[in-house]
Design brief:
The protein has 105 residues and is mainly α. The protein has helices at 16-25, 33-37, 40-54, 88-94, 96-104; strands at 9-12, 65-68. It has one domain (9-104). It is built from 5 helices and 2 strands, in the order βαααβαα. The two termini are 16 Å apart. The model has no long low-confidence stretch (mean pLDDT 93).
Length: 105
């Protein structure tokens, strides 16, 4: 992967149960979890949450763009070690397309 822009981006794995509750509260129609995480209302909700966190950080440490995944990282999925540490290289390879899309926008 070539370095194009040096901006902070994030891959977010939301709490699915709470995300489904949010969908009910906000009356968001969706077919499956993939559809739900792509909803504009869900993206707006997370964007506001990120803005709140960013407000207390120096500008260079703020998240500029993000992508939501419809599932958590797991040991079975290969993203976590048995001690629940993140395997950055696996995540980078597995979600390369999503990560690159954040720099293309």
């Amino acid at each position: 992967m070539e370095i194009r822009n040096l901006i902070l981006v994030a891959i977010i794995t939301p709490d699915i149960e709470r995300l489904i509750e949010l969908a009910k509260i906000k009356k968001i129609n969706y077919m499956d979890l993939q559809d739900l995480v792509k909803s504009e209302k869900v993206k707006e909700f997370f964007s506001k949450q990120i803005e709140e966190v960013n407000s207390s950080l120096p500008r260079y440490s703020t998240i500029k763009k993000f992508v939501l995944l419809p599932h958590d990282f797991t040991i079975d999925g290969g993203e976590l070690t048995p001690t629940l540490k993140i395997k950055r290289r696996v995540i980078s390879d597995k979600y390369r397309e999503e990560i690159e899309s954040l720099y293309d926008k």
